[in-house]
UniProtKB/TrEMBL annotation:
NCBIfam families: P_ylase (TIGR02093). Allosteric enzyme that catalyzes the rate-limiting step in glycogen catabolism, the phosphorolytic cleavage of glycogen to produce glucose-1-phosphate, and plays a central role in maintaining cellular and organismal glucose homeostasis. The keyword Ion transport does not apply. This is Alpha-1,4 glucan phosphorylase. Its cofactor is pyridoxal 5'-phosphate. The modification N6-(pyridoxal phosphate)lysine is found at residue 670.
Amino acid sequence: MNAKATKTQPSPVIDKAAFKAAVIKHLHCTLGTDENKANNHAWWKATCAAIQEQVLEGLRKTQKSHYLNDTRAVHYFSAEFLMGRLLSNNLQNFGLFDVASGALKELGVEISDILEEEPDMALGNGGLGRLAACFIDSLATMELPAIGYGIHYEHGLFRQEIKSGAQIERPDSWRDYGNPWEICRPESIQEVSLYGYVETKYGDNGRVLKEWHPGSIVKGVPWDIPVVGYEGKTVNVLRLWQSEASDYFNWDVFNAGGYVDAQRENVSAETISKVLYPNDETEAGKELRLIQQYFFCSCSLKDIIRRYKRAHGDDWSRFADQVVIQLNDTHPAISIPELMRILVDRAELGWDEAWGICTKVFAYTNHTLLPEALEKWPARMIEKILPRHLEIIYEINHRFMAEVDKKWPGDNAMKAKLSIIEEGNEKMVRMGHLSVIGSFAVNGVAEMHSRLVKSSLFPEFDELYPGKLTNVTNGITPRRWLKACNPALSKLIDKKIGEDWPRDLDKLQGLAKFASNKTFQKQFMKVKLENKELLAEEIRKSLDIEVDVNAIFDVQIKRLHEYKRQHLALLNIMALYRRILENPDYDMHPRVFVFGAKAAPGYKLAKDIIFAINKVADKINNDPRVNNKIKVAFLPNYRVSLAEKMIPAADVSEQISTAGKEASGTGNMKLALNGAVTIGTLDGANVEIAEEVGDDNIFIFGLTVEEVNELKANGYNPHDYYYKDPEIKAVLDWLETDYFTPGKPGALVSIKQSLLDNGDPYMVLADFRAYSDAQIAVDAAYRDKERWAEMAIINTAKMGKFTSDRSIRDYVERVWKLSPCKIES
Ligand code: Z15
């Protein structure tokens, strides 16, 4: 796949003088300003415009080559793409970073300043959205024909501010001053129908024809974001749909009468792509959300079909050879009945032929086992918005029930269990079941997660469709998550093992033999120290907290969720604080606990945990008795660009979810890649990280999945731990006082309540002692400077498996069956 493995840095396509001229040209001709008047924002835009010339040239060549070769392509359907910033990435991938930086320097501009001008493209919540972004980076790098399809949200994930310790949400307006990367494609506008009713007609020889008379029609306007592969050869696109009112007026519906009033209750066209739902792993079940999903799926399918027909006309026989669609979770699952509708009602294919095509086109990735995240839609809601799709879902289910009956004759309990329809007070459509039934492959995102998908989420489906359920362990792009975000470490690695590692991450293995080399340890830890200085500066600017760069930088960055157990980390911090107050000589290496986390706006306990972290931080950071042994820094507005600053500076990576709950995790991979040592549970991809680095280079603690289940089965009672362990009791009782919230006793009590009265659903108390002891072991290990350096180096050296290139290779071989396409110049 990688014919040029020996080739090193991407060779610059233009030199410094030419780049400088391009920047000036765009300053003048695109921005209408000049070198004297331009501020950083204008310089940023002019630089983007200069590199965009190269990007678009690559895009044109790529599209031409894909067209001429009539390539099979993967279509990655995702409601979220968490792209972050693109300038530094695009410069890196064209090998033009140093060229641009030099050109700008001659113009009196510091590249690091202008990179900071770029707003993050935050069209995602967390892991799932960032995974999609890493995957399209790898797809382009590996020269694979691919397109990402999603929603052009006007507002991405909210901006988080912290006021008096509490999270407040502000709108994210990432496009307010224009986005230099995106290209509007009015020539590819699609129309999407909603609401209305279905008419049954009879065609020739009694064939039943269904005609959907929609109640409204909206326009989908595509915006293309070029996705530049490493070394800049393939430039794929991310196509995002924006909704607009259609001028089309549906007379049918108007004449049918009675619809004018009902129409008022319907979602208006412009609203559809207005805002990203900020819930990570909780389904709100809102009508607008279902419409968002259908909107982008319908636009994308029509776009795919238009492209297919251009090459193959009305011959559907090759559709499944040319098109594979990956469903990123069940969010795009409505694509399955939508494709059936198009094939059966529009193309007038027979049901079996249409179903044969569908089940060769779709593949589905499951990202969670948490019941609150598994999507279910009220049948009545689907009926209102997509009346024809509900009929199709019933038909799919009817035929599926016959299959179930063949396998388990007469077993009605089995039918009820596997049915797409959940019966009850309110009939619900289970999107997970629909996805498994309508796809040819289903994968989990880490070995352990995929095992649990088979053994506890979909065991009967595994029996019914042997081999359909599989694993593809997640990965991260080393271009963004090492080369671009950690230039100092990257250069050190280049010097030591050469420059091939960004596209062949297994090469990092070559560092392992230097792990015990004193000189290399010093160099490696010097880079870490410099990165800690940069983060310390960030903490000072943002929070006015002084931190000691010789302290252990202990980093927990991820969405705020009970299962991720930020409150377990908090309880340990409080316990350490208490130990210091009780014994001023309490022996510990100074530690800075750094947090970044957004809570879903409606998730009360998550917001309470953020508040508690900030209140405990205030107290500890300003208590002279602590003698700077502990600092706590909650950095507001955690996002991709902040992660890029935090990750290179981390000594310790916190991955402490309740075993069985974190499907994979990807922050765990990013931190280890940058030389952080993990303290974590045997959960998600932590298990595979431990396998790679070895037990001596990771701190594993806590209950295993089996132990969690056993404890649950035997009746877990958190009060046992509360009464048995005086430190747990003292720390929980502390939350009830006004010690951390002067004058406001009880302001932090909800955390104690959830852990005691609410049964501690994520077993924080059961794991507390093991966690706290593991932290003591971390402390001891850090004091042995050489031992720690060796561990850090081994972590970087052993992360080869977790490049998203490997994940994509797994998908290509096991699911997509794609071949790379060389781009002709
Ligand atoms: C999300 O970010 C993840 C799963 C979901 O079901 C939703 Cl709705 C959002 C995360 C998992 O929690 C995380 O463990 C995994 O690494 C990530 O998806 C990518 O697979």
